[in-house]
Design a protein that fits this description.
Blueprint (H helix, E strand, L loop, with lengths): L1 E5 L6 E5 L5 E3 L14 H8 L29 E5 L3 H6 L9 E5 L4 E2 L5 E3 L6 E2 L2 E7 L15 E8 L2 E2 H6 L14 E2 L4 E2 L11 E6 L2 E7 L7 H8 L10 E3 L21 E6 L3 E9 L2
Parallel strand pairs: 4-16, 6-12, 7-18
Antiparallel strand pairs: 1-2, 1-13, 2-3, 4-5, 8-11, 9-10, 9-16, 14-15, 14-17, 17-18
Length: about 280
């Protein structure tokens, strides 16, 4: 299934895509794509529905029908840094012996096509296309061999980053990672049966039509099952938690000379089978 949340910001309703790519309204069946709806039994109940039996939502998704973040009620937005060796090299940083964990605040979460804001005082706002994992079955100290049974689905994330805040403002990376609008999620949550080979998904990102990132999940250092296992050693994972798994090379910081977002640009990014995001960049209001 491809599951979506549609409607105005803060008023999103749950839906699913039918075979024609139209949105079908799930709000008569579940309150939101959150919590119990993401448990294995919740997803099984949704999979048993005939999309044609659900109300058709007017409009074309990502055209005249806004899609919101594809997961509601996110409790934790956990990110993995330097998980592609070639990205670590372009960043001038050594490959870590264990995954680097940082957080985005949930106030950063936005829809896949919502505007991205350049924060006040920013001089180095950057982009990162990433594969994200959404947790379904909760767990703690999850065995690597069982990790994929805890996955509700996968989606695209743009891990927007302010590099000066991240690197030069003292403390952890979180200062540069969690600004408002720095976490576009979606367009849809793709269940594992439709996500393809998550170890070999092409992924890309363009700014104003120029392709900067053109990679694949095949070059991940730490794979999805290990990351779920690893993160669960430090925190319990609950339905709707998001783990964003790192980015391939081609970020603005890695260009020679570096290229950063100033406002007025348009980003487009996507992962094969998981959809495309489009964001206009503007200064914070």
């Amino acid at each position: 299934m491809k599951l979506v949340r549609f409607g105005p910001a803060g008023q999103e309703r749950p839906g699913m895509l039918d075979d024609a790519g139209r949105v079908r309204d799930l709000s008569g069946r579940i309150d939101d794509l959150a919590g119990a709806a993401l448990l294995p039994e919740g997803l099984a109940a949704l999979a048993a529905l005939d999309p044609e039996s659900l109300p058709l939502v007017p409009g074309t998704p990502q055209a005249d029908l806004r899609l919101g973040p594809c997961v509601g009620g996110i409790g934790k937005f956990v990110c993995i840094g330097l998980n592609y060796a070639d990205h670590a090299a372009e960043s001038g940083l050594p490959m870590p012996p264990e995954p680097v964990i940082f957080n985005k605040w949930t106030s950063a979460v936005s829809g896949p096509d919502d505007d991205v804001e350049i924060p006040r005082g920013s001089v180095k706002t950057d982009w990162e296309v990433e594969l994200a994992v959404v947790i379904g079955k909760p767990g703690r100290y999850i065995a690597e061999a069982e990790a994929l049974s805890h996955v509700a689905g996968y989606c695209v994330v743009n891990d927007i980053s302010e590099r000066d805040f991240q690197m030069n403002r003292a403390g952890t990376w979180d200062k540069g990672k969690g600004c408002d609008t720095f976490g576009p999620i979606g367009p849809w949550l793709v269940t594992p049966d439709e996500a393809g080979d998550i170890d070999d998904l092409p992924m890309w990102l363009e700014v104003d039509g120029r392709r900067y990132q053109d990679g694949s999940t095949a070059t991940m250092v730490f794979r999805v099952p290990f990351l779920i296992h690893y993160v669960s050693q430090f925190m319990s994972l609950r339905p709707g938690d998001v783990i964003s798994t790192g980015t391939p090379p081609g970020v603005g910081m890695g260009q020679k000379p570096p290229v950063y977002l100033k406002g007025g640009e348009v980003m487009r990014l996507g992962i094969a089978g998981l959809g495309v995001q489009t964001q206009k960049v503007r200064p914070a209001r």
